[in-house]
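Sequence in, structure out.
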Amino acid sequence: MRILVIEDNERLARLVVDGLQRRGFSCDTALSLSGADDAMTSATYDAIILDLGLPDGDGIDWLMAARRYREIPPAIVQTARGALEDRVQGLDAGADDYVVKPVDVEELAARLRALLRRPGIRAQTIVQVGTLRFDAARRIAHVGDHEMELSRREADLLELLMRRAGTVVRREVIENALYNFNEPVTPNAVEAAISRLRRKLEDAQVRGALQTIRGVGYILKDLTA
């Protein structure tokens, strides 16, 4: 799951990002609303965490305009404004959840997981391709009764391929989904990630499903179809 943290306090943003990444999320940071707009034109996010007092505008106004004119991912407002009228205004403006600083990262991660389980927020929570089953909320994959041991990045890659099973996923799409803007990406990073996932699939007796389309990308096939 890729999360955009919109927060102008760099120290707080770093603490939130570090905590969420330890809990299986991939995160980017925007220190302003204009930075958030730039990030959202360059990457696809599962959810955003939004501060309200930002240097180039108010998060509530931005959220209302964003909801009115385009589709954006579910949003959790994280702010120091804790009065009842502030919470009501934030939820009425289009926030899907509202938390008052300081909030424990464990709770924030749980709220994100709960948010992403809601019907209609994203595609179905359980994805199935043949004998391979992936629980997107819990980030767990099973082949039959066998649970696969996956890193955060391997789970993200598997979910991406399973949601597009039967179609070729281009290399650049995978790179964009797996790596946030601050991570250095080596030329063979995607190939290495594919190789690790393919080996784990084969160890789980899912052989030949993850295939390379040379010069284009990768495809996950349902070999039981």
